[in-house]
Write a structure and sequence with these properties.
Strand order of the largest sheet: 1-2-3-4-5
Structural class: alpha+beta
Distance between the termini: 90 Å
Radius of gyration: 24 Å
Strand content: 25-35%
Order of helices and strands: HEEEEEHEEEE
Number of strands: 9
Mean pLDDT: 90
Largest sheet: 5 strands, antiparallel
Oligomer: single chain
Shape: elongated
Number of helices: 2
Length: about 190
């Protein structure tokens, strides 16, 4: 009888250790999977942003390709959907999301008065809380433009996204960087 009690006690301790280890393993891997999913989403979003920025063009009204610039907000014209008219594109950070707003040109002559259709490009973006500028702008000589009133001089844009599912857990955020020269400006 004593052997049975000892054997059941040892078995219970081993099962408890295995269960605790498995729970810890799944908890750790859950965070890693979430983090890698967020990074992949941000990479895809960044590829889309860069592709559209490269294609910035004069609006369907003939307006200059760039409307306004800011550290976490960029408005310009580009053909984002391969239709005959150029759209007004607005990328900005809202909370922990990178948002893309598109305003289609309507009417004849075309005007950009329709409401902006927004979609989330990337989640878990921590640029605002980390103090990282999402957009940095450069002129034709490669000098960074810090006076956002000089938007007409922009020829090159660098995009940075700080991605982290939970800033309270390690690893720290991953910083993704990419850049694009605006092809239709010389």
């Amino acid at each position: 009888m004593i052997e049975t009690v000892v054997w059941i006690s040892v078995l219970a301790m081993v099962m408890l250790a295995i269960t605790t280890s498995l729970l810890y393993f799944y908890r750790i891997n859950k965070y890693a999977i979430e983090q890698s999913s967020a990074v992949i989403s941000a990479q895809r979003g960044m590829e889309n942003v860069i592709r559209v920025i490269r294609e910035a063009a004069y609006s369907s009204q003939g307006a200059f390709p760039i409307v306004s610039i800011a550290a976490n907000d960029f408005v310009f014209y580009a053909d984002a959907d391969s239709d005959p008219l150029i759209e007004r594109i607005h990328y900005y950070i809202s909370g922990t999301n990178l948002i893309m707003g598109i305003t289609d040109a309507t009417g004849d002559p075309p005007v950009y008065t329709a409401p902006e259709a927004t979609s989330t490009i990337s989640d878990y973006v921590r640029n605002l809380s980390q103090g990282v500028s999402a957009f940095r702008y450069y002129d034709s000589a490669g000098v960074e433009i810090t006076d956002y009133a000089k938007w007409a001089k922009v020829r090159f844009v660098q995009v940075s996204l700080a991605v982290n599912v939970d800033p309270n857990k390690l690893p720290n955020q991953l910083l993704l960087n990419s850049s694009a020269a605006i092809r239709n400006l010389k």
